[in-house]
Task: structure prediction
Amino acid sequence: MTNPLFASMKQSILDGDSDAAITLAKQSLAEGIDPLEAINLGFLLGMNEIGEQFGAGQLFLPDVIMAAEAMKKATAILQPEMNRLGTQREVMGKVVLGTVKGDVHEIGKSLVGTLLSASGFEVFDLGVDVPFEAFAQKAKEVNADIVGVSALLTTTMTGQKQVIAALENAGLRPQVKVMVGGAPVTRGWANEIGADGYSEDALGAVQLAKKLMGKS
Amino acid sequence: MSNPIKYISNPRFSIKVLSDAEVLRLHTATLDVIEHTGVKFPLPRALDILEAHGATIDRSTSIAKIPAHVIEDALKLAPPAYTLGARDHAQDLLMDGQHVFLGTDGCGVEVIDPFTGDLHRSAKKDVSDCARLADALEEVSFWWAMVSAQDCPSESRGLHELEAAWNQTTKHLQTESLLHKGEIDAAIEMVALLTGGKEEARKHPLLSIMQCTISPLAHDPGSLEAGLIAAEAGLPVGYMTMASCVSTGPATLAGNLVVGNAEVIAALALIQMVYPGAPVFYAAAQTSMDLRTGAYTGGGPEDFLFGAATNQLADFYHVPLSMGAFATGAKQPDWQAAIDNSFSSFMASASGADMLLGCGLLQGSKILSYEQMVMDCEIYSIVRKMLEGILVDEEHLALDVIQGIGPGGNFLAQKHTRQHMKELWLPRLMDRRPYEQWLEKKDGAREWAGQRARDILQNHQPEPLDPKLAAELKKIITTYERQAINQ
Result:
């Protein structure tokens, strides 16, 4: 018989209840449940259902974000035990994210980060006003698969091109894929600067990241 | 030469979506947020100014908590009325709460080619073209940087946009694209050149500066610095909130108004602390996030309510308002565009916004459509006519004529009719033809708007700049570029 805790875990994600998710993660550790099982048989099922319901138009973006936050919190509690056991959640890919130099707009980029984490990507968020070279350094350091560059202003958007140049100079292209986003970013711009893809919204960015990893 | 501009003057009725008590409550709630939650001013100079005026500053977060009375005292120094200058003085705009002026929308990144229908990334030539169209359209009172000159260096792009526009229109310019010290200095120099000196520029500012806030409750360092420099030079400065329900503001409309209001009045107060009496304006384009995509696309009933409510707030502070109206989320000039732009322009105008931003863009202010621009002018002309209201005096009651005609006649051949018939609104784009006539080509507003735009783009001759001044404008940009880019 399955542990009833798994159903509660799933429910905590469906409810977007971070506090409950944290409590349940701690409880599962105390009961000696394998943390990977807690994720795969509990929390992740909630996330999958959220995705399905959102796709069917029954849920809205705030529902998804709340679930993703709860998922992130629960995983963080379970992570040290997974490290100790030498087990690892399957990682979809490693993504370095940031808002480009000269631009301090954070929300869109962070939204993408949250959704990527919830979808199984390992995300390294460099924050805002990030120097071009810092993207390349971090990508090299963590052996990233994808670099995501955000810009909200037409003037700072040109920095996305410079990030790509920095990655090239560091010898990371074309292995490391580049995705760009932000209000003024268009397909034409993404093509012109040689990015591997762009998305108009956060959920599209997740689809794109999966596609770039050959997993969609 | 452009024709005289057609704007809304002394509207005969107004709508209020908030009671006086509700406006006051929004105000006190805003002060509460500014004093206890604080607003982020990530510019040392701004923090110094605020601290000197009694704010509590956290240098590590750049958050300033400003006492209510400090904000209120500073806002009282803002002038309630002033003039926005135009190269053609007949096109000067009086910001006195009695007029509603239509401007263009901005700042887009793509353009639908008016001749081929293809979509392309915006360049300086497009900036030039849309300014020429704005010059010719009577309903457009001022030009807001419509699209980005993406073929110019990002450091000087804002200056290239102004230079392109001043060569194509005599109307007032407003921009949101100047974010750096050297760039705003150069823009001020350009205004001084065109007006004949720094003092003249102050009296007759050909350019007003719009800066965006970063919702929730934060500012951009460049916007703050550029705003302060522009205010020192006497150019009118406004701060625009684009707080968006659910993402950058609370889901509730009142909460979203409070967040945006805190950003705007804290910035305007900052300007008044250093440059008391400097002309400032309130600017806003709040919306609600699309629940499915997270997008900021513009349009919808919340936007329309924000348009009216924000004007009540600006009136409460006795400062002019530049209100984001039009700016549909539609992809093409269609049913959605017409609905969005009709309601938003009506609500903002009927509540007395001083400036309407603005006509001509689609997809949440990203794509320039010349057809839409011409059609938006038609929408504005309808709103303008409505706000003239109904004149009830002896002449307009027409009792003598009614008496003369009596039951069963008609009024076609009356002198009174000929005298007054041109007071009626005359459409340029509404199709009132017989059905059979329509059947011949099945054309309509969109085709006619496109045709008018193409005619203007090909034939309109704007009042040219003195070639010497035009050359000097270019020189200012080159000098700045040499410093900024090749340093």
